[in-house]
Amino acid sequence: LRQPLAVGRRRRSLAREQYRVEHMGVPDGVEFLATGGGWTVLAALLLSAVMWLPRLTGTALVGGQLLPLGPSAGALWAQVGIGVRGSGAGPVAPSDPFAYVLAVLGSVTAWDPSLAVLGLFVAALPLAALAAWLCAAQLTRNSWLRALAALVWTLAPTLLIALGEGRLPAVLAHLLLPWLALAVLRAPRSWSASAVAGILMAAVGASAPSLVPAVLVLWVVATVRAGRRAGRLVTIPVPLLALVAPLVAYRVMQGQPLALAADPAVPAGFTPADVPGLALGFPTAGLGGWADLVDGLGLGLPGAVPLIAVA
Predict the structure, then answer these.
(1) What are the TM regions of this chain, as residue ranges (predicted)?
(2) Contacts of 299 (CB under 8 A, 6+ apart)
(3) Which of 39, 66, 151, 165 is 20 to 30 Å from 270 at the Cα level?
(4) What are the C-alpha distances in Å from 296 to residues 274, 282, 290, 303?
């Protein structure tokens, strides 16, 4: 039997949607609870409480790369854009893109911007678990794989060390990456997801400039795989480009292009991890304190690798 072209297109669209729902595991609120998402986030919340409650003695975190943000959100927004940098008669230059991220974050608690940073650090583990679980839910319906992804992302050495050393940009990048991946996965089917992905990519690029090349490569791959729906992904990098363009032009004119890869935070010295440490996911030497524990037990690094990997 012959059928109109519009009917055929509609049937094929419904078939693709059914396949996506069955194989991509798009979650709803009930499935989030039924497949263990709630328990996963609750476990991360309890772990965060154990970590932070004994240390909460004020409304701001100071130490490592952390400094008080400022007296008000208005003071943070005054630092964005082009203006005089440094103390006194400093050069006129564009602000670091991360200044916009700080201004938005500080506006959450406009009366005391540093309180937002404190809340972010305290809630980092459950937020990481939630983001990783939802991102994994777009890729698999297996509840154990979702929980495993959330566990690995929540207890990643990069996040735990960033929390311990007060590396706010690294913490933000770690928390935002799963949301960026989730938005990109949904972007071919939604302009709203595409817009959110653009904002998240700009925030990730401002927080961790060294990740920009990798993020752009993954964006190209996702755009190519989207096929005829690639148009919704093409504009995702536009907010990032608009955010970094003034600083890129300024650094190039000053002959300092390598400065673009520097982390946007208070400079702090550290010893890079060796090859075994990097293989285990530790960005700095000492394996996040495990090296001292291993030396005390007399195991040596070869014997400690299985212990650290399991932990």
Answers:
(1) 32-53, 115-136, 143-162, 197-221, 233-250
(2) 307
(3) 151
(4) 20, 20, 10, 13
Distance in Å from the first CA to the final CA of the chain: 62
Report the candidate in 117, 43, 42 with the shortest Cα–Cα distance to residue 76: 117
Compute the distance between CA of residue 187 and CA of residue 171 in angstroms, rounded to an integer. Answer: 25
130 in Cβ contact with 182 (< 8 Å): no
Q: Determine if the pTM surpasses 0.90.
A: no
Q: What angle do CA 287, 290, 293 make, to 5 degrees?
A: 150
Structure tokens at 172: 């933000």
Residue 25: count other Cβ atoms within 10 Å of its Cβ: 19
- Write the single-letter amino acid at 114: S
Name the residue among 60, 98, 95 with its Cα closest to residue 81.
95
Return left, alpha or beta for 300; rule: phi > 0 is left, psi -120 to 50 is alpha, else beta.
left
Neighbours of 30 (CB within 10 A): 8
Residue among 240, 250, 233, 235 at smallest CA distance from 212: 240
Please tell me the distance from the alpha carbon of residue 311 to that of residue 299, in angstroms, as a whole number.
15
Question: Under a CB-based contact definition with an 8 Å cutoff, are residues 216 and 271 in contact?
Answer: no
3-state secondary structure of 82: strand
What are residue 163's phi and psi, to 5 degrees? -65, -40
Q: Extract the residue ranges of the chain whose pLDDT is less than 70.
A: 1-3, 16-30, 57-65, 86-90, 266-311
- Joined tokens for residue 70: 């400022």
What are the residues whose beta carbons fall under 8 Å from the beta carbon of 265, sequence distance 6 or more? 65, 98, 167, 168, 169
SS3 (DSSP) at 88:
coil
Residues in the chain: 311
**pLDDT of amino acid 282:** 67
What are the φ/ψ torsions at residue 83 (nearest 5 degrees)? -175, -175
